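for the recovery benchmark. tokens below, seq after
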């Protein structure tokens, strides 16, 4: 590596492990990123097309010479927009398939006692059933749950009409969507339409391709992701604030360490039940361990942290380093953001990498199918595998000391509750966003920004998230966060109550009064649907559209197709969105202008690109202040 570890990550927990990896000749994501340089210029600009076997075709942009059209005649706008649209569709499908799995799990909880799942939040179940016109009078709770699950599953492929959750958006937003013909219909249909229309010889108009892509993205945010979040809350409980520990220091030398990594709470919730099974704990003790230490990684870690206070071990770029500690007895994974490299790293230690989903097998890993029909039983088999591996640990163990404390679990319900407590319900009907609206209107809070998304070697690990969050809270902007951004913030201490010391006066006062940290953990990436709903409620309460609110989104270190889908539905929902890494579209001037400019006049939201967190903060704050001026607040 050509530089010190400090220029690769701003998380000190990683340095000694990076060194250990180097000494033990373990290759990590940073090594592979370096070996990949220079990265392909055509791909970087979105100008390589492999949509048919006449290709691959690439458009030469950097010089006068070279082809300006693909063999079929597709130009840079067509090629770049088709590539982007397909990525958005893939991201939308990942989130939505997650939502579908949760709906299936809810159905099993209702109909199949073997599954071991139980519906936890009856109140939220009944309220959703009512919203969807499902009969709740004199009905058995299990039948209501089954009907809600079935209705949710029908959202994926219903032949007519539009998605039900669209009704939750402000009227003005729905009008814009209808006018632009992007109102989502059925989730699978909207995703399929992107694949069809980007097939060779179909849609060649970049604006129309983006219309189809925006509809598929909205199908994610206001469809698949929202179904995932709402049904997870019903099945596993609405998140509440918990104080937890985060970073690789949560691994324990004397206990069986089981890292759960991936996305779907259907698996992690079952694993959580299994690690508390007295027989398995006894078995762990027989192996010489003090107990079983379950810790989370990436979004599935967010899910069980916010519902159960399970420690968050690390984000996307720490998955290999967790294994490099030598102390992980099993890393259990389901879907998404699991580096295939893990099986190579695991091979160098005693760690068992266990894949569980038929959708994600990795050569070199052990596959132990997780069945929702008998969730707890299959989880127990997986945990047993981890427990039995404890005795195989080798001598080369190093667990970093670094870990931070912070509060996680700010669902909308929890945020509204926290505000209610201090503002007292005599002043306003309880359970509304009025206190939040008041704080924004009075200017004590200048606005709110969601910092979300992944890690990417193009940005110094965690720095994009942490520096941006610090700048914003210093300027009285409340930060909410999900995904790997949430890990970065909690590791940096920004979710502790002490972080108030880093805030401007207004935000510090609010945090003091309401007893919240200045950076609120709202969950996993699918939980960005919570943010959509909060914005929607806020807009309705203030009698404006989402686009008028002094809020913004930021994805400083994004990398996944899911993040592209998120960014697109957030922009199409009216929110200014700052990206720290440029999407692969810059080869098309028209598409780039469309995303960073033209969409503003249509949807109110638009993309901006800035990799320097301080500069990004400046731009975000000036956007927030501009909105305040228009609202005369
Ligand atoms: Ni879904 S999508 S790296 S885990 S946030 Fe983390 Fe979050 Fe990006 Fe993946
Ligand atoms: Fe080339 Fe057109 Fe085929 Fe793409 S679709 S590979 S541009 S011929």
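predicted aa per position
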């Amino acid at each position: 590596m050509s530089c010190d570890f400090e220029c690769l990550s701003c998380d000190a927990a990683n340095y000694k492990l990076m060194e250990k990896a180097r000494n033990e000749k373990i290759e990590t994501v940073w090594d592979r990123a370096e070996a990949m340089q220079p990265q392909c210029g055509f791909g970087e600009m979105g100008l390589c097309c492999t949509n048919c076997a006449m290709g691959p075709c690439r458009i030469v942009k950097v010089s006068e010479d070279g082809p300006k059209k693909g063999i079929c005649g597709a130009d840079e706008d067509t090629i770049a927009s088709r590539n982007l649209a397909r990525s958005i569709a893939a991201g939308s499908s990942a989130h939505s398939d997650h939502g579908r799995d949760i709906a299936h799990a809810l159905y099993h909880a209702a109909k199949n006692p073997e599954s071991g799942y139980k519906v936890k939040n009856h109140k939220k179940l009944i309220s959703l059933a009512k919203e969807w016109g499902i009969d709740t009078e004199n009905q058995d709770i299990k039948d209501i749950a089954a009907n809600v699950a079935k209705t949710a599953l029908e959202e994926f492929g219903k032949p007519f009409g539009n998605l039900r959750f669209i009704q939750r958006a402000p009227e003005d937003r729905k009008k814009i969507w209808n006018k632009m013909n992007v109102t989502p219909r059925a989730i699978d249909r909207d995703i399929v339409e992107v694949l069809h229309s980007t097939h060779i010889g179909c849609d060649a108009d970049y604006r129309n391709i983006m219309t189809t892509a925006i509809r598929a993205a909205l199908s994610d945010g206001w469809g698949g992701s929202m179904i995932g979040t709402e049904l997870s809350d019903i099945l596993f409980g609405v998140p509440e604030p918990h104080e937890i520990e985060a970073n690789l220091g949560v691994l324990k030398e004397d206990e069986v360490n089981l890292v759960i990594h991936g996305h779907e709470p259907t698996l992690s919730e079952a694993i959580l039940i299994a690690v508390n099974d007295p027989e398995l704990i006894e078995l762990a003790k027989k192996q010489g361990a003090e107990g079983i230490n379950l810790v989370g990684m990436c979004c599935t870690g967010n899910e069980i942290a916010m519902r159960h206070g399970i420690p968050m071990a690390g984000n996307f770029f720490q998955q290999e380093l967790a294994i490099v500690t030598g102390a992980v007895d099993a890393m259990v994974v389901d879907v998404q953001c699991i580096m295939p490299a893990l099986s190579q790293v695991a091979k160098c230690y005693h760690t068992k990498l266990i894949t569980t989903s038929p959708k994600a097998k990795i050569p070199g890993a052990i596959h132990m199918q997780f069945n929702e029909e008998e969730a707890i039983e299959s989880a127990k088999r997986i945990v047993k595998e981890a427990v039995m591996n404890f005795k195989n640990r080798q001598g080369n163990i190093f667990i970093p000391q670094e870990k931070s404390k912070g509060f996680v679990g700010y669902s909308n319900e929890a945020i509204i509750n926290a505000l209610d407590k201090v503002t007292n319900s005599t002043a306003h009907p309880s359970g509304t966003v009025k206190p939040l609206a008041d704080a924004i209107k009075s200017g004590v809070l200048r606005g709110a920004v969601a910092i979300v998304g992944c890690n990417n070697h193009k940005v110094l690990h965690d720095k994009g998230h942490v520096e941006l969050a610090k700048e914003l809270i210093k300027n009285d902007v409340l930060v909410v966060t999900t995904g790997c951004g949430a890990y970065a913030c909690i590791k940096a201490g920004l979710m502790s109550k002490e972080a108030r010391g880093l805030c401007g006066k207004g935000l510090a006062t609010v945090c003091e009064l309401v007893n919240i940290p200045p950076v609120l953990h709202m969950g996993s990436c699918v939980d960005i649907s919570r943010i959509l709903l909060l914005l929607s409620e806020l807009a309705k309460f203030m009698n404006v559209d989402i686009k008028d609110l002094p809020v913004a989104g930021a994805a400083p270190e994004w990398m996944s197709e899911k993040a592209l889908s998120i960014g697109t539905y957030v922009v199409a929902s009216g929110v200014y969105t700052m990206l720290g890494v440029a999407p692969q579209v810059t080869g098309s001037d028209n598409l780039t202008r469309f995303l960073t400019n033209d969409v503003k006049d249509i949807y109110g939201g638009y993309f901006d690109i800035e990799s320097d967190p301080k500069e990004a903060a400046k731009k975000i704050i000036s956007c927030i202040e501009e909105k305040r001026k228009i609202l005369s607040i």
